[in-house]
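Pipeline run #58 for the internal structure catalog. This entry was flagged by the ingest filter as a single-chain record with no existing model, so it goes straight to prediction. Upstream metadata was stripped on purpose; only the residue string is passed forward. Reviewer on rotation: M.T. Logging verbosity set to normal.
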Amino acid sequence: MSLYFYENEARNSGFNTIAGVDEAGRGPLAGPVVVAACILPPFYRSEDLNDSKLLTEKKRLELFHILTNHPDIHFAISIIDHKKIDRINILQATLEGMKTSVQKLSVKPDFVFIDGNCAPKINIPLKTIVDGDRLCLSIAAASVLAKVTRDKLMYELDKKYPKWNFKKNKGYGTKEHLDLIKQNGLSPIHRTSFAPVRNYLNFMKIPIGERFVQMDLAN
């Protein structure tokens, strides 16, 4: 299927100002979730846009520069921090970010494509697309905006909290990251509602003499 299929289908149905929405950072154990909304010009073409996870960091940065400096591309980005994620849960935080990003657009869309199978309540016609960042051009653009923005935030947070190597793991639950939690405890930006982090907190409440020698944070 062409990456332009969904936009063409929407325009054939009479919609002209079409936004794509995607997030970065639903899965990590630390840091914010970032949501971007992006409106591309009618019949915009790009040979490089794709799911941001499939692109090299260099290519993502190149595309981010193009998208954020194009005079006819409108975008908005929302950042939901770890505290709110813990308070309302990651799904609700993501949905809030989606709604906020669409509302922040300087041009109001008349149709919205959203990556995944869940959508916020907005008074605009919309369609959810599973794996939309690989199937829909405007969602692919939003995925690049969200991913690059979040990566930049995690680089900055790494400078503030260097013990957890956020510049490399971006907060995701890699083996190295889990080992660093065991070694250093939790940073102020860890999501305490996420199971591996919550398990660590529960483990630390156990008297030292009763703790297991090894703890599997992934359980």
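catalog note: Residues 162-210 form one domain.
catalog note: The first helix runs from residue 5 to 12.
status: ready for reviewer M.T.
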